[in-house]
Every structure is written in structure tokens, then in C-alpha cells.
């Protein structure tokens, strides 16, 4: 022993991040005043991280945490008696408790998309991102965790000031009880973290209050509960512990309806099924249930906490001036006066809208138009430290020279001074006034999470998914886009911007496995397909445990995918290995002046349709890959109802056989083929009038459409006929019977519910035609990039 410290062997010293957090809470105790001097606790944390000697006073606490982490690696208790023996052997792990808190923003879209302008939507999203990625980790001193919370590390002074000026004032003592090793994850708009028992309610209240303090109207919810340390390994336990229904009980009752509702349908290996349920996973599920109850206004488990049933209320007097977008009581009009620059249109701002607008401008580094906001005039509120997604994208490109060369192959001027798009018009300027909305979300996440049994695995899973999602977005943008020089812009918000080089995209949010993007319309589908495919690739590269071992046979492949080119085997040889998790996306191609709230609503419907198709393919064919649904909408008046209703009643004809004039949603393989077919159609120079004529004839019957397609097709020269035959007719429209020669172009024969349905992708090819570049033009960027690399 040296100066009251003891040297421990590496085998006896906690190494995992969460082990340090658990040891901290175990040594702290269950009171607000730690049972061990706070300086000793800090010395312990520092010593564990550096491998140095640590105080003798906390030896027993560290030993108990190590024992806890090795419990389930030995003999698993098979009955209540064996479980009771654990309590007798490790009484500290049974008697001592730890707090676990889960919370975050709710009804995010309601808050973000209630505004009508991109600047305000961007600001609402950026403000929530700042709270999720900086403010909440800052409660735990996230800047000290280095690479784990890079946003906090880059604004360390802001994090320290937040704790000093706000957290310590609102919740005294809380900051001393929190360290970064207590955070299980803090991504996707939610946080899951441990804390000393006495501060469980304080931490949950602090999370909710931070959202309300900063946004005024955004909904948030947080719940916390104290659990015994032994429950971190064996799930919820009764007191006395011998009354807990255990493995022997489950083996006898596994097929009972109520038991199956709790543990899932009985499978072959009941023991493993029970272990997965009775684990840390059960604690998280308990908090998720409490979270939904509190969010719905259920106060049964409120305890001493304030109720959350009453949302923020703002003044709505009928004679007051209102802001121009959210219809709330305005507090100030932004005019040019006293040598202070105003905003185009001299808008009225409510307090809520002003916060969104200045946050959006700060995130976009638009300091020139931010002079109108003086914190003293807005109750001292400041947008804080913000980092836009485009800034992170630039940082990503600096670390990946090959992608940087691909994104900017011509090395346009002002490479280091590219601006961020201010409006949808600037993004649409890169695609003839049309933009594409992409909303992507992960598949199979809930099922996979059910297999996670420890907090450490939760942490690793969250980090892997978060990194894969973000990097997949950057990869897709770099592969398909390039900087754009604005031209012909006359919008007041883009005054004097003609000739400016911009990043032609908008990342609205990246959270966990959720992505929302706005990109040029001509690249939207390609970006979505690459994003979903790269997500799977990065996950498998990050952790081989995500890889699926099953291979898809030829028959199953044909049942899943409709795109069947002659070189299918060659194409599939370059595909990434199959992954347990995947991503689906909804893509809406529409005019730049389409109301954002309406576009978001339709994109959400497309995502839901894509995910339903993924669930269907998984159930029927064990397909775990991603899916994409898309819609090209030339005018806002094109749809008077939802997309499903429009398709069922406007694009489906006949009964036996049924004719569907659309093919969506598609698998990622099919989307890749659809884009190839669209390029081949463009290259064939098929007369546009004939494209639309064939589309109009689809409604008149199968044979009428086939005859007219044949008539127009044979009028092309031989080379272009062969191009269509290879990329459209043979790849999509071959008959199911291989002995039957010819094809059904422009139809595909699909077997549905013991009957034949004829689908066609022709309508969607025609919709994509204006947004498809000829192959020579599309390949220019790739060839230049390869030369640079």
C-alpha cells in the first residue's frame, strides 16, 4: 500500500466503461451525501482509467462490481433455491440499489415541422440535436469522455458553464453525482443512464426541464427507478427473492398464453429464451412502459415528481399580433432600424419561433443575417454552442480522402468556403426546381434489442448503430452529389447568392437509426439506396456479430426480388454480406415549393409502406434486407388523400387477373435495377410522347399495353432495341415459366394469394425519366473521381 492506495492486478480491475460507473454508484451509496468522500471517489475513477493504484477504502466496492459482472458467466441459477443462495453469498448486491433513468424528446415531428420555412425547421431540429448530443451528456461531464462524446469535447467551456449556471442552480448537488461512465447511450433523441439512487428523480426532472427551458414547447419525458444491483444481471426480482418465478417455473408454464405474452412464443431452447428475458433488458422494458405511461398522463408511478399531464400554454388573446408561421403571440417584429439589419419580409416572431430561427442560422454559420437577435431582448436566452451536420460532413471528408475526391472531383473553386443551402430553392436549383425528401429508419431493431442482455451490450449496440447511420449518410452524399454553383436565384432569402458554391443538401436530423434528408431530386433514389445498403455494410464491418450466416438460394432470391438480369450472379458477388439489421426508406420527389409539412406527411407514409414490405418479406422469405418506397409528385394537387388510398383506387384495375400500375415498394436490389433501367430508357431516346402514350394505355388492359409497347419499340434502331430488351424486358418482364419464351413487357407476372397479378414499373420509369441523367453524363463524375484517386 502506497499513501493509502492499493495496487490491484489487471484481472481484478474494472476495465469496461460502465464498470467504472457501477463502481461509482456502489461506492456512493443511497443517500445524496456519498458514504465515501467525494475526493476519494474521484481518485478511484481516475485510478481505474489510468491503471494506477486506487484508494483502499473502495476495494470492497470494486470487488463487488467485478463479482456482479461475472455472475452469469458461471452456473446460471436454475431454480428459486439457487437464486436465494446468491443473495446469501452476495448480500451487498441484493441490499444495495442503483438508479436507472430513461428519457428524451417526444412528438419530435410535431415540434420540428410545425413551422413552414426550412430555416425554422432546421432550427428546431438543431436545437433538439444540441440538447440530445451536448446538453444531456454535459450533465455527466461528457467533455471528459473524449471520443465518446466528441461534440461535448469540442465545446468543453459551454458544458462547464451549463453545469455551473443552470444545473447547479436548478438541481443542487446533481452535477457532483454524475460522471460520463454512467451513460449507457445518448443518441436518437433518448438517453439511458445510471445514477446514484438518491438523484434518480432529480436527473429525470432535469432532463424534462432542459427541453422545456430551451424550446418552451417541445414535448419531453423522463422516468427513473431504483433497481438492486443483482437485478442488472437477472432482471426484475421480487422481495423476498424466493417468490420470483424462475427457470424451473418457466419450463413448466412456457406455453401458457399469459407467459407467452411476457416471454414470447415458446421456442426450442426455452432456457436461452428465459435468460434473454430475465436480464438487463427487462429493466429497460420496465422503464419504457413507465415512459409511455407518464407521457400519456398516467400519474400512478409519479411519486414525489411533478405531473407531466399539462403541456406548455401560451397566450392566445384574439387581438394580439401573431407570428407568421406558428400562429403564436408575437413579441417582436424584425425591422431595419437603428443600423441593425433585419430579415426579408420583416417577419413577426414569437419567442418560440425566434429561438428556432436564430438556432437555424447559427447552425448554418449564417452570422451575417443573425444580427437581429440580441439575447438581452429575448429574456437572456442564447442558442448556445451548435455544430451543424454539414460541418461534421466536412470533417468526415477530411478524414476520407477518397470520398472527398469523389464528392468534389473537379475541385471547384472556393473548396474550403462552400456555403450551406439556405432554402429549398437553393437545393432545387441543382435539379431544375425539384427536391427529394428521404426519410429512413432501421428495420428489425426491436427484435434484435430483445437479445441484448447486459448494459455493456446496449452501449456497444447503440454506438455501432449511431456511427453506422451517420457515416452511411456521409458516404451516400459523397458518392452521388457534388458542390453546386447557384445560378438564376431571385428569392429574397438568397439575395446576392448567385455564383456561390453550396452543399446541395440538407440534413434535417440523424438520430440513432433515423435519418431525414433533403437532396436534389435527380439523385434522391440513388442516395437512398446507397444509404440503406451502406448502413448494413458498416454494421457488419463494425461488429461481425451483426452478420447473418444464412445464404439465399436461387429460388428464394427470385421470390424476393423482381429484377432478374442475366448477370445476376455477377452482381450479387459484389454485394456486402447479409446483416441482421437493415434500413428502409421513403423517398418523395416533388417541387421545391411544395409545403414542407405536406411533404413530410407523404414521406412518412412512404416509409411506413416500405417497412411493411420489409416485414412481409421477412415473415414470408426470411429476408432481412432494406426496402424503399418512392413517389414522384409533379404537383401538390396530385393527391387528394393518402398514398395507399391513391394507389388502391387509382392505380389498380380488374379483379381476375388484377393489374397494378405501380411496382413500389422495392427491395434495395430492385431499386438498383430500377435506376439502371431508367438510365437505359433514357439512353434509348425513346420518344417522350410515346412514353406517356404507353402509360395512358396501361389502364385499357394487358394486351393493349403490350401491343403498343411492341409497336413503338420496334421503331427504334437495333442497338436501342437490344438495350431495352436487356435492361427492361429480360430483367423485369420474363415469364415465370422458364420454358416459355418471350416476355410480358411492360408487365410482370406476380403470384399473390393463389392468383396472378400483373404489375408494371413503366409508370414509375416515366415518372423518373425527367430526373434521370444519361449514362454518359452520370459516369463523368465517377471517372473523374477515379482519376483523382
UniProtKB/TrEMBL annotation:
The keyword Heme does not apply. Gene3D superfamilies: 3.30.70.270. InterPro entries: Cas10-Cmr2_palm2 (IPR054767), CRISPR-assoc_prot_Cmr2 (IPR013407), Rev_trsase/Diguanyl_cyclase (IPR043128). The keyword Transmembrane helix does not apply. Residues 435-614 form the Cas10/Cmr2 second palm domain. It comes from the Bacteria. It holds the Pfam family Cas10-Cmr2_palm2. Keywords: Antiviral defense, Nucleotide-binding. NCBIfam families: cas_TM1794_Cmr2 (TIGR02577). This is Type III-B CRISPR-associated protein Cas10/Cmr2.
Amino acid at each position: 500500500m502506497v499513501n493509502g492506495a492499493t495496487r490491484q492486478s489487471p484481472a481484478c480491475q474494472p476495465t469496461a466503461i460502465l464498470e467504472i460507473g457501477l463502481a461509482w454508484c456502489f461506492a456512493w451509496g443511497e443517500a445524496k451525501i456519498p458514504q465515501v468522500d467525494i475526493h476519494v471517489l474521484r481518485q478511484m475513477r481516475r485510478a481505474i482509467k489510468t491503471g494506477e493504484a486506487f484508494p483502499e477504502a473502495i476495494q470492497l466496492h470494486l470487488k463487488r462490481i467485478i463479482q456482479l459482472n461475472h455472475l452469469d458467466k458461471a452456473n446460471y441459477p436454475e431454480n428459486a433455491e439457487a437464486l436465494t443462495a446468491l443473495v446469501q453469498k452476495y448480500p451487498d448486491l441484493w441490499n444495495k440499489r442503483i438508479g436507472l433513468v430513461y428519457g428524451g424528446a417526444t412528438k419530435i415531428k410535431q415540434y420540428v415541422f410545425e413551422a413552414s420555412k426550412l430555416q425554422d425547421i432546421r432550427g428546431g431540429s438543431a436545437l433538439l440535436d444540441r440538447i440530445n448530443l451536448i446538453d444531456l451528456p454535459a450533465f455527466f461531464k461528457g467533455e471528459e469522455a473524449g471520443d465518446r462524446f466528441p461534440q461535448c469535447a469540442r465545446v468543453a467551456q459551454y458544458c462547464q458553464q451549463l453545469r455551473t449556471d443552470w444545473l447547479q442552480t436548478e438541481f443542487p448537488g446533481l452535477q457532483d453525482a454524475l460522471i460520463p461512465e454512467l451513460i449507457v447511450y445518448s443518441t436518437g433523441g433518448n438517453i439511458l443512464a445510471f445514477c446514484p439512487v438518491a438523484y434518480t428523480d432529480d436527473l429525470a426532472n432535469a432532463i424534462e426541464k432542459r427541453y422545456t427551458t430551451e424550446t418552451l414547447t417541445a414535448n419531453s419525458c423522463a422516468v427513473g427507478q431504483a433497481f438492486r444491483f443483482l437485478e442488472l444481471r437477472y432482471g426484475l426480482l421480487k422481495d423476498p427473492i424466493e417468490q420470483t418465478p424462475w427457470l424451473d417455473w418457466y419450463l413448466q408454464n412456457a406455453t401458457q398464453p399469459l407467459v407467452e405474452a411476457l416471454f414470447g412464443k415458446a421456442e426450442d431452447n426455452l432456457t436461452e429464451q428465459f435468460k434473454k428475458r430475465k436480464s438487463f433488458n427487462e429493466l429497460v422494458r420496465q422503464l419504457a412502459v413507465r415512459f409511455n405511461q407518464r407521457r400519456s398522463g398516467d400519474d400512478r408511478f409519479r411519486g414525489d415528481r411533478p405531473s407531466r399531464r399539462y403541456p406548455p400554454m401560451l397566450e392566445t388573446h384574439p387581438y394580439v399580433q401573431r407570428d407568421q408561421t406558428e400562429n403564436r403571440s408575437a413579441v417582436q417584429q424584425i425591422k431595419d432600424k437603428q443600423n441593425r439589419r433585419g430579415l426579408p419580409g420583416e417577419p413577426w416572431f414569437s419567442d418560440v419561433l425566434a429561438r428556432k430561427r436564430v438556432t437555424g442560422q447559427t447552425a448554418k454559420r449564417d452570422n451575417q443575417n443573425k444580427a437581429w437577435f440580441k439575447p438581452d431582448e429575448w429574456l437572456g436566452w442564447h442558442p448556445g454552442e451548435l455544430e451543424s451536420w454539414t460541418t461534421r460532413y466536412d470533417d468526415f471528408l477530411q478524414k476520407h480522402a477518397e470520398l472527398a475526391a469523389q464528392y468534389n472531383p473537379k475541385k471547384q473553386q472556393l473548396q474550403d468556403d462552400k456555403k450551406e443551402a439556405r432554402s429549398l430553392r437553393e437545393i432545387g436549383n441543382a435539379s431544375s426546381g425539384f427536391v427529394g425528401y428521404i426519410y429512413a429508419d432501421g428495420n428489425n431493431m426491436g427484435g434484435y434489442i430483445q437479445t441484448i442482455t447486459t448494459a455493456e451490450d446496449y452501449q456497444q449496440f447503440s454506438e455501432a448503430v449511431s456511427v453506422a447511420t451517420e457515416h452511411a449518410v456521409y458516404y451516400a452524399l459523397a458518392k452521388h452529389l457534388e458542390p453546386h454553383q447557384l445560378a438564376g436565384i431571385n428569392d429574397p432569402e438568397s439575395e446576392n447568392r448567385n455564383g456561390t458554391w453550396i452543399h446541395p443538401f440538407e440534413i434535417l436530423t440523424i438520430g440513432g437509426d433515423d435519418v431525414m434528408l433533403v437532396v436534389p431530386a435527380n439523385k434522391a433514389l440513388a442516395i437512398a439506396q446507397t444509404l440503406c445498403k451502406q448502413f448494413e455494410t458498416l454494421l457488419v464491418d463494425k461488429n461481425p456479430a451483426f452478420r447473418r450466416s444464412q445464404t439465399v438460394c436461387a429460388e428464394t432470391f427470385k421470390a424476393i426480388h423482381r429484377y432478374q438480369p442475366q448477370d445476376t450472379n455477377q452482381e450479387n458477388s459484389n454485394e456486402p454480406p447479409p446483416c441482421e439489421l437493415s434500413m428502409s426508406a421513403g423517398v418523395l420527389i416533388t417541387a421545391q415549393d411544395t409545403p414542407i409539412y405536406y411533404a413530410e406527411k407523404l414521406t412518412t407514409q412512404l416509409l411506413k409502406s416500405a417497412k411493411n414490405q420489409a416485414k412481409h418479406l421477412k415473415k414470408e422469405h426470411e429476408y432481412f434486407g432494406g426496402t424503399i418506397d418512392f413517389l414522384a409528385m409533379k404537383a401538390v394537387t396530385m393527391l387528394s388523400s393518402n398514398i395507399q388510398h391513391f394507389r388502391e383506387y387509382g392505380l389498380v384495375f380488374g379483379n381476375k387477373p388484377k393489374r397494378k400500375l405501380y411496382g413500389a415498394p422495392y427491395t434495395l436490389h430492385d431499386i438498383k435495377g430500377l435506376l439502371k433501367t431508367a438510365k437505359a430508357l433514357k439512353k434509348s431516346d425513346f420518344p417522350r410522347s410515346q412514353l406517356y402514350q404507353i402509360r395512358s394505355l396501361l389502364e385499357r388492359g394487358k394486351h393493349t399495353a403490350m401491343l403498343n409497347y411492341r409497336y413503338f419499340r420496334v421503331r427504334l434502331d437495333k442497338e436501342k432495341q437490344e438495350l431495352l430488351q436487356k435492361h427492361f424486358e429480360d430483367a423485369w418482364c420474363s415469364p415465370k415459366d422458364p420454358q416459355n419464351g418471350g416476355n410480358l413487357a411492360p408487365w410482370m407476372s406476380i403470384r399473390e394469394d393463389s392468383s396472378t397479378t400483373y404489375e408494371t414499373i413503366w409508370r414509375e420509369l416515366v415518372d423518373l425519366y425527367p430526373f434521370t441523367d444519361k449514362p454518359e453524363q452520370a459516369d463523368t463524375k465517377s471517372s473523374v473521381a477515379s482519376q483523382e484517386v
